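Quick one - inputs below.
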Amino acid sequence: MKKTLLLIFIFTILFKNSFSRSVGETEILTDEGIEVFQNEKFYLLKKNVRIIADDFNLSGDEVKIYFDKDLYDIIDIQAKGDVNLDSKSYKIKSSGSSIDIQIIKEEITVKGEASKLYLENVEMLSDGLIKVNNLTGAFEIIGSNSFLKAEDIYIKGNNIDGVFSTTNTREILKLNVEDDQLSNIKTEDLDMLSKKAIYNKETSIIELFENVKIVRGSEIITGDYGTLDTKNNSYKVKSNNSGKVKVLITDSNE
Amino acid sequence: MILTSIIFFIIAVIFVFQYIQLSKNNVPIINSGTSNADITKPKFTINGNNQEIAITAKEGDFITDDEILLKKNVVFQSNKFKIFTDKVIFNKKKFIATSSEKSKFISKNTSIVSNGFDIVDNGNIINFKGKTKLTLK
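Output:
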């Protein structure tokens, strides 16, 4: 017992610097200093920046922090160069070439190739931009290889935007998906492809525009315009004057 | 028994090491009449757009007509912050201050520890140099 206490004592002395941050404090470490611009009200953290707080950890090559009155009064964090953000309290994990966190607006923007943003039960990836506003629930995923994945839905397209519910479980209330090639919405039993898709939870209707293809099990329907009622999983597909709706039913046992 | 002795020996070594480190950081300032400093208790002011920064030190030596090496207990104080260090080169014509010594910046709910700093643009820009630690409360 005595020896254990002594070892704990030695361990505490040797590693006291490692545990120097107190609860409620934010510790910021840099390898090449901090430049404070008092009139412009920002400070620039240079090289291998690590921000350690109670609620989140952030690292990046360079971070610019805007403040209101004093240095601790942070209103905007702009990090660039291999940025990683991890917040267990807010259930956010993100990485990208740059991350911008606007504290008052409660908005996060992730930019660059292979940008990732995990927000509660939703996974968002893009080679362009991912933006989410926590207050309004508005989100944007723009650029190539953009997709959104939640528990029961997968959405792919070069231009995805919409509105999440602002409750703990991020439910999609509104959605617009566009892709010059084909956008894709997949649910448990449906695979929908089209150039453009619009969803509104109030009407529970998904509208599909141009090069529409709906796949349900062995049933494939193609046309120019389609609607899907998510309440009863029924759908209608129409065609322009020149075209025809095509239905293909394949026997999966063949 | 041997293990306990080893543990006590390690503790003793740690305490001696920490005492030496503390002594290095807090070298007592000898204020004797034999001081060769060009100026004693120099005072300067940087007038910025929004604030005035008062600079004080225990001693100062002229390097050139415009540059003064401020030594021992150098303090930069404005209505918003204080910076403590032991050596600063201050250009009284351009109002530029440069230090390569360990420095501590203290402001409301904020502290910065760095390996030196530059104050330029009439005090608007403070550049903390080297490995730097900023603590916000």
